[in-house]
Amino acid sequence: xxxxxxxxxxxxxxxxxxxxxxxxxxxxxxxxxxxxxxxxxxxxxxxxxxxxxxxxxxxxxxxxxxxxxxxxxxxxxxxxxxxxxxxxxxxxxxxxxxxxxxxxxxxxxxxxxxxxxxxxxxxxxxxxxxxxxxxxxxxxxxxxxxxxxxxxxxxxxxxxxxxxxxxxxxxxxxxxxxxxxxxxxxxxxxxxxxxxxxxxxxxxxxxxxxxxxxxxxxxxxxxxxxxxxxxxxxxxxxxxxxxxxxxxxxxxxxxxxxxxxxxxxxxxxxxxxxxxxxxxxxxxxxxxxxxxxxxxxxxxxxxxxxxxxxxxxxxxxxx
Length: 319
Prior knowledge:
The protein is an alpha/beta fold and 319 residues long. It is 41% helix and 21% strand. Strands 3, 4, 5, 6, 9, 10, 11 and 12 form an eight-stranded mixed sheet that branches. A two-stranded antiparallel sheet has the order 1-2. α1 packs across α3. The termini are far apart.
């Protein structure tokens, strides 16, 4: 392919639409999937990528009847294109934040062990205090949320901390204790002084791999002296299923206090027990990109959310 420069003219500047089209193809290596992702017709997408190749004077893709591959030049340009698009996104976000706080879109990511129990309060706060804010909620596991935050797909996260992730700022909201949930008539039911050591030999039911609550529960068990070889008999995809397994007599589990009422109120085959002080606990926080354009706005939102959550059985953390 002859470059524009070799034809005696100056290279044309690629457009953002061309870069966006090429970045989508580079990610999916499939024109139809890329076109669907960015809401462009497949012919328009193909034309935009061809126009970008012509503007830059290099072949970016190797096209066959069965698949699409990045050329060596395409791999290098794809990385640059993503960086340019992220920078433009930051520019638009900063401009939007400068116009007026608590307006426009706020993409909030929430972990599954928080979403059902805190979202009612979050939604009421937004409805009452920030009516011009377009809140979009995404429920995902922690690793996916952090990836979305790093790549600009999400603006703010509501999850358990500490995360220990560079370039992420945590805004603590509250601490909450874990409660033992067991089958009815279990010997630990109704107690308010359960020692952590009791966890050493219990048949423990946990969430599936990938849930931070599973890791927190295992950490608590290790601190209590539970042998890591002691098996976890069953795991579940969500807390509701976990509680039903407990009610069926398969073992016991640990629930955060904010989930207790919702998950146990509908089943009379359960009993609960509370740990002796200091009880095992977790901290819930908002998390944002360090130096985010909307940092001041997010800090105000965290402060307002602490007030909205004061009715929960938790210990608030000062901002």
